[in-house]
Amino acid sequence: MAGLNTQVAPAIVILGQGSLTTARCLQQIYAQATIYGLQGRVQGADQDYSTFGDLLRSLYQRGTPIIALCAAGIVIRSLASLLGEKGSEPPVLAVAEDGSAVVPLLGGLSGVNQMARDIAAALGVAAAITTSGELRFGTCLLNPPQGYALADLEQGKRFVSDLLAGEPVRIEGQAPWLAQAQLPASDAAQRTIHVGHLARPASRDELLIHPRSVVVGLASGDLQTIRDALQQAGIAQASLACVLADERAMTDTRLHAAAQALGVELRFAARPDDVAGMVGAALPEARLQCQGEVVIAVAPAPVEVTQIGRRRGRLAVIGLGPGAAELMVPAVKAELARAEDVLGYETYVRMAGPFRDDQVLHCTDNREEMQRARHAFELAARGRSVVVVSSGDPGVFAMAAAVLEALHESTNPDWHAVDLEILPGVSASLATAAQAGAPLGHDFCVMSLSDNLKPWSIIEKRLDLAAQADLVLAFYNPISKARPHQLGTALDVVRRHRGADTPVVLGRDIGRPGQTLRVVSLAQLVPEMVDMRTMVLVGSSTTCTFERPDGGQWVYTPRWYGAKP
Ligand code: SAH
């Protein structure tokens, strides 16, 4: 639980402009955190919200850690209806608007007290820790540190209350994190804290903790193979630190599914001769035992997983959407949080931030697409988690095709073993269309007017045919300083087939600061109204407009064609 929640970026929720400074200060500790500001009260937050209670409840239900800059009472009242079950909740904290107090409220088992201490340290104040076990013993016994897992939470709670009631305790096995704890220790104690990797039910008087000290090594196999081997060896599944497989099995989906089902990392190493040799080389300190084709290594202490072999590298090509944070899909945000290397055109890399200090940014010129794609594979093939950023959607006149082309051209097996994923974004045509109404409501044609990578004659031919087919036209890269005259020529071609009063939508910097949206007629449209940051949507014969109350116009293309049904 603790591990899970600390990986989800927290939400910082503020109610007034005065809290923004404190919120930004907290973003220094949690770089991927999103600041939510109350609509109409806060300017410059990452995202707006309209109802405090609704926002808090939906964050809580999604398991997002919540840092609310307001009175603790407001937070409790908002979440009250959801607080039935203990044990499965994200950390929730109230922080005074001016940063003078930090109160951990919920999520004792998911690390709220640690968050409170981290925040308090950043703000230079003391955290208001109230958890009795934690105060008495100086540690949360039910939340052992990374590398250890509690066998049974319910039994653990009873155990801790026994200790709070005055029962003495004895430690069996290695529990180095308890060396500093103020436990009522006694060699004659009935109650024991037992740290061990063997599978057995906890006895009534013990707190059973499994160290993640076991590695399962295999050449290939599935979930059942691993479970059976652990069971036959009598080892608790919670003690499994990772699965180590032959690097030739890097793309084996059964192995990945097995590791995911077990909640552990899948690591890879070369297997020169047998599996025991591979595992022994990775864990020289461990005791090995063979279960059929599987080799189980038991180390004397929790295993540092990042030191075992290497992991499969990942390359994600992501779309940021047009610019505004709320138009970025959640999968892209999560990918940015896990990225170790970020590649892209500098403007887009900056748009994807803020980043943590440990994330490496590789900013390049916009034109070096193939070089950037190959660089991304080189990094990912080394086991890194790499992100290539595009604006809008990565598959629309952007990096995804270049990345696939680089892979297609390569015969390097390490590149082909990379975990490659393309994550979509809201493309500029869709973001612009949504603001104008529904100009793309019927069949449409998407074109780039840039002749950098294709001959102008093809552009003219496609324009002619698409205009003739009465498709709505969406133009990307409509004009640039290097090719100032082509848009005029393109519009001449379109005018052969479209009426002078055809509506045209011009969206500039949509979803970015200073965005503008204009609706003009095809007759009014001149290239001077357009630059390279503009999206041009030319209506079809059925596209129509009507007045909006704010003085602007709605533009839409009806779903039907020909006679109205
Ligand atoms: N992959 C991007 C498109 C890259 S091509 C996407 O899916 O949106 C670059 C062109 O997209 C620009 O010349 C401009 O025509 C358009 N564009 C990109 N972002 C835009 C924005 N925020 N507002 C308006 N047009 C934009």
UniProtKB/TrEMBL annotation:
Keyword field: Cobalamin biosynthesis, Methyltransferase, S-adenosyl-L-methionine, Transferase
Pathway annotation: Cofactor biosynthesis; adenosylcobalamin biosynthesis
Domain of life: Bacteria
UniProt KW S-adenosyl-L-methionine keyword: yes
All copies of domain Cobalamin synthesis G N-terminal, residue ranges: 55-133
Keyword Coiled coil among UniProt keywords: no
Residue span, Tetrapyrrole methylase domain: 315-525
Gene3D superfamilies assigned to the protein according to its UniProt record, in alphabetical order: 3.40.50.11220, Cobalt-precorrin-4 Transmethylase, Domain 1, Methyltransferase, Cobalt-precorrin-4 Transmethylase, Domain 2
InterPro entries: 4pyrrol_Mease (IPR000878), 4pyrrol_Methylase_sf (IPR035996), 4pyrrole_Mease_sub1 (IPR014777), 4pyrrole_Mease_sub2 (IPR014776), CbiG_N (IPR021744), Cbl_synth_CobJ/CibH_dom (IPR006363), GbiG_N_sf (IPR038029), Precorrin_MeTrfase (IPR051810)
UniProt protein name: Precorrin-3B C(17)-methyltransferase
